[in-house]
Specification:
About 40% of the residues lie in helices and about 25% in strands. The chain is of the alpha/beta class. Strand 7, helix 6 and strand 8 form a beta-alpha-beta unit.
């Protein structure tokens, strides 16, 4: 990917907070590139470094070292120009709940230099695009969570940015509202040719939305590519064995590691994953070996590799375990 083909580029971004015993390495050399006109996801558990990366790319934070460009503009040398060409939707709502949807959007347009008439035209256009016209003149504090999140995204689009940053855009939404937001994000990239970078800790969101993604763990990019490339690189199928306790899982892992035809065995807590060429063919011998070793099983499933398998392979622990660690920080 040449420099002219990069809507976003981050190179060796490092960011540390605190000092001494309280020092936290939020980013430890994050590198990735995004071509124009696609949805690119930064996928990782809470505390992985996703939001810190976005803050640097949107000029809200300065890296300790490394470089980054957005739309060909250096984020450190010309932050003012960066802010004119990007839209940013943070995790927290930015609209005024005492104002109507139309008033919120018009104000956003005026802040970006549009005339009152221009702002109203653009606001009406976005309200229609996000199916919010009927609620345009209601105070936004009375809107549903899904409608409010759509308004946040619409506000980020008022000045027609080249790149839109969405930080955890569907956190807290119910399944129906999440699906609606997915449809809107997909439409933006497909119909408007907009480059969208979204951060998410939802595996299905990255799998369904992103043309490409980078998996972040502990402040580093541990894998990147299309969802299908990353899953396909693992090969075959995964036999997932759940056990009642970690000691049983360790016993199961030792048994499975000695069996022929198993490409890799990875364990996490009470779950052991074995990658095989053909799950249906391998399953009878696998179960027989565990039974002979008197290993007590809870459940056994066979599936093609998922993004959770990809994360486990590259990070050494399951996505859910990493999320719990991040939430506890």
């Amino acid at each position: 990917m040449s420099g002219t083909d990069r809507a976003i580029e981050a190179v060796d971004l490092v960011k540390t907070y605190g000092k001494g015993k309280r020092e936290v390495h939020a980013l430890a050399g994050v590198t990735f590139a995004v071509r124009p006109g696609i949805i690119f996801a930064l996928l990782g558990p809470n505390g992985a470094g996703k939001s810190t990366t976005v803050k640097i790319l949107t000029t809200l934070s300065v890296p300790d070292s490394g470089s980054a460009t957005v739309a060909g503009i250096d984020v450190r040398r010309d932050p003012g120009q960066i802010r004119r060409v990007i839209g940013y939707v943070s995790q927290r709502p930015t609209f005024d709940p005492t104002a109507t949807g139309l008033e919120n959007l018009v104000l956003q347009g005026r802040i970006h230099g549009a005339s009152a008439a221009q702002a109203r035209v653009r606001a009406r256009e976005l309200l229609g695009s996000f199916d919010l016209t009927a609620a345009a003149d209601r105070t936004t504090g009375t809107w549903s969570g899904g409608m409010q999140r759509k308004l946040d995204v619409a506000m980020g689009l008022m000045h027609r940015p080249k790149v839109l940053f969405l930080d955890e855009p569907t956190t807290g939404l119910d399944p129906e509202a999440r699906m609606g937001m997915w449809a809107e994000i997909g439409r933006l990239a497909r119909e408007d040719g907009l480059t969208v970078l979204l951060t998410t800790h939802y595996l299905d969101e990255a799998d369904n939305l992103a043309a490409r993604l980078a998996i972040i763990d502990a402040g580093r990019v541990v894998a990147s590519g299309t969802p299908d490339e990353l899953k396909g690189a693992l090969g075959g199928e995964t036999v997932r064995v759940s056990l009642p306790a970690p000691p049983e899982a360790e016993r199961a892992r030792h048994v499975l590691e000695r069996l022929p035809g198993i490409a890799a065995v990875e364990s996490d807590g009470t779950v052991v994953n074995a990658r095989v060429a053909n799950g249906a063919a391998a399953l009878p011998g696998l179960l027989a070996a565990l039974d002979a070793a008197t290993v007590e099983l809870t459940t056994v499933t066979v599936a093609r590799p998922s993004l959770d398998d990809v994360y486990l392979h590259h990070a050494g622990r399951s996505f859910s375990s990493a999320s719990l660690e991040g939430a506890g920080r």
